[in-house]
Amino acid sequence: MAPRRSPKQRALRLSVAALLTALASVPILVVGFTFHAVASVLNPPRNTNPANPGDRSLPFEAVALRSRDGIDLAAWFLPGGPEAVVVAHGHGGSKATMLDHAEFLVRQGGYSVLLLDFRNSGESQQAVSTLGYHEWQDIAAAVGYLSERQGIRPGRIAVLGVSLGAVSAIMLGETAPRVRAVVADSSFATAESLVGRFDRWFRLPSWPFSFLVPLAVQWRVGLSPADVAPVRRVAGLAPTALFVIHWAEDAGIPPDDARRLFAAAGEPKELWIVPATGHGAALSTVPQEYRSRVLGFLARHLRG
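Predicted structure:
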């Protein structure tokens, strides 16, 4: 007959069993969280904001574009003046999320605006999101459309991008001869900056996920964080004018990235570090100063 265990022995045995079960589930949880983070990078949920320029009494026209690598893109053209601005949204956003930018550019600046949905965003074709590595080709398609549109002055086109939009605009590099000015709001210098603040973007521990997620992305699409590096392309923009905007306390991308981009860029260039905390929301935080600085920059380089 087996000896009877004391209550303490039974409790200890149950605790050990529970611990072993929990430890056995750790690899499954790590894999699950890793692939969830990868999916949020490469295939963010579609932004379904139903707003459109007509809600603000802004005339607009739906436009179909095709990127240089064959992705079908959706856009809105808002008529204004003979100078035009491509407005590009951030990761997980859409053209509808950039209506505040479009409105002041049209109403106060007198510019025509093309609001763009990046690949895998808004109403554009499903495709892998690459944090700017391929999205620059979407902006190139928008610039090409404006360059051929009647009523737009050749060579009087700018790009205003926020976050992903800013990265993609800088990644145009030497391929941007028809772009006269770029406003890059909240760009990273390299995607390694996102890895450095992994816990802030994904609310997961930096270890082991800051190692596993980039590794899984590289396995999935063949890109490493070092491959997405606007800082290595920004010099090629010159003589396109560059206005770098960043937050002094950006929760996701350190302001040193903006300084690195500015230092690597050719002339003409301007830098504004917004004395606030956040990421990509300067227009809603300091709206009057944001509009004044952006419109002043565009006036000097599109109309000067």
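Summary: The beta strands are 61-66, 72-78, 84-88, 112-116, 157-162, 179-185, 241-249, 269-277.
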